[in-house]
Design brief:
By secondary structure, the protein is mainly α. Helix content is 71%, strand content 0%. The chain starts with 18 loop residues before the first helix and ends with a helix. Keywords: Coiled coil.
């Protein structure tokens, strides 16, 4: 009866604190590939326990996986990356990996012949960018990641992971992506059939449009018509990210004029007015947060557009919509942004 409960895909695990050392000892003995896989599977299970993660990173075991990156068995390489992915779900694991010598050999697996291994590597890299230090450490990989996007050989999940990593890195420093024609690349991806990829591409473009060079490239490459089209996307986060790019781009004169020519004001005003009812009805906390961002970004974009004579003239006619949010709004951030918009629109010299 007891034998039937043994999982053949897992290695036997010692009791308590002996479990992690025992499995790493087995890996160091270089058993056949099947046994290495079973040991790694058991380690992945253990890493869901924060205590075992702490034991792994403080006991010096993490560096021992480096040799497994070059294992001749693709499944072993993949499971090794899966182990790091589980480990980096914990902050202490992310910090330990960043402090180790594993990043260079791990990044070499971006060209691994196994698609499963490459996918696992990208999952690890995306997890690392949850820390600013992680995004900073991966800036040198930005040109390589963008090259992979241009080749369009990876599956959609991997493309989305690459875009997520690029986004986090670009919020840290947009220069590497901008220097590698990132705005043009992301503009091409904005119309992708996958909602997830459109969402991530718009977020990465928002990161690049924070700086002036990025804003100017968005205008020069005529991406604002595409972004205005995304305001009608069925996905809320795609809308939020598209408005975010517009919000940053309309802070320059060219961006203001292009957006006014595209008649974006009615759409932004609609977000500010009608979305209030939807915010109140929304039960999911994450969606409430995104709806708030949509309203805030729209208000800030309207405030910037009001600085242009044409925008101010049109917005004066719609002033009651904005005043309504200053009077009945409970959220202090939205109320303050609405007040700023009204102040700019009604300002007289």
């Amino acid at each position: 009866m007891a034998a039937s409960l043994i999982d053949p895909s897992r290695a036997p695990v010692a009791f308590g604190r002996r479990a992690v050392p025992q499995l790493f000892e087995e890996l160091q003995q270089r058993p056949e590939a099947a046994r290495r896989q079973r040991a790694l599977n058991s380690l992945c299970d253990l890493m869901h326990n924060p205590e075992r993660v702490y034991q792994t990173v403080t006991g010096g075991f993490l560096e021992q996986v480096k040799v497994l990156f070059q294992d001749e068995d693709a499944d072993v390489r993949t499971k090794t990356c899966d182990l790091l992915h589980v480990l980096t779900s914990h902050s202490v694991g992310r910090q330990a990996l960043l402090s180790s010598s594993l990043l260079p050999p791990l990044s070499q697996l971006l060209d691994d012949p196994s698609s499963s291994c490459r996918r696992s590597v990208h999952r690890v890299l995306t997890r690392l960018t949850l820390l600013p230090a992680g995004a900073d450490a991966l800036l040198t990989l930005v040109p390589k990641l963008m090259l992979k996007l241009r080749q369009e050989k990876e599956e959609e999940e991997v493309q989305a992971l690459i875009l997520s990593t690029l986004s986090s890195c670009s919020y840290q420093d947009p220069r590497p992506a901008l220097a590698n024609d990132g705005v043009s690349l992301l503009g091409h991806i904005l119309s992708h059939r996958s909602t997830n990829i459109r969402r991530e591409a718009a977020d990465a473009l928002m990161a690049l449009s924070v700086c002036r060079d990025g804003k100017e490239q968005v205008c020069e490459q005529n991406l604002l018509p595409v972004l205005v089209g995304l305001l009608q996307d069925e996905d809320l986060e795609v809308q939020v990210n598209a408005v975010g790019v517009i919000m940053f781009t309309v802070t320059i004169t060219t961006g203001k004029q292009q957006c006014l020519d595209l008649d974006v004001l009615p759409v932004l005003l609609d977000f500010v007015s009608k979305k209030k009812e939807e915010e109140e009805e929304e039960q999911d906390e994450e969606r409430r947060r995104r709806r708030k961002a949509l309203v805030l970004y729209s208000l800030r974009a309207l405030t910037a557009l009001a600085e242009a004579p044409g925008g101010r003239h049109l917005l004066l006619e719609q002033l009651p919509v904005l005043e309504a949010r200053t009077e009945s709004e409970e959220d202090q951030d939205i109320r303050r942004s609405a007040q700023d918009a009204v102040h700019v629109i009604t300002w007289t010299p």
